[in-house]
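Fold it.
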Amino acid sequence: MKTLIKICGLTTQESVDVAVQSGADLIGFVFAKISPRCISPEQARQLSESIPEKVKTTAVMLHPSDTEVQEVFDEFPADYLQTDAKDFESLNLPEGCRPLKVYRDLPGFDPSNIDPHELTLFEGKNSGVGELVNTSRAMEVAHHAPIILAGGLNPKNVASLLQAVQPQGVDVSSGVESELGVKDIQKIRDFINIVRDYEWDQEHEK
């Protein structure tokens, strides 16, 4: 089965183009003001103009209000809205947009809280800081529901985490940067190639 690859926190046209050309499935743009990767909805719209329809876009937010969501989607109608699962209880999803609910790796987290029929994202306590999830907990969650694994992934550890956790997808942001908020083009290519090589190996071991 194909592993979904999400490259998140892109801020330049070059990084978007390289991610798409290298085979990313989802591109994430960050609108959380506290993030060094935060861009405006106008910038996201411009950066996404070259993204083909088969590659899905994600508006990444942190505890947004309905007004903040609407301000982003007025300019940038993303395919997914990504924020903490609890946030969706009080949000009206824009038309044509799907939720990408974030569940965090906190002590005592119960995997049964996740809808097993819905693609969700499982990551560390804090977003965008390279915080690796607890592998055994991630395995338990991935066994219960289709998750995109996020937090602390990079070209060096993604193959072993795929092997251990077997998630539906993987998400990387700080793990493909040369410095905080600055994407490294070669690391993006390497990350995607390693995931696709892992897939190929798995397919041919059967």
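The longest helix spans residues 185-205.
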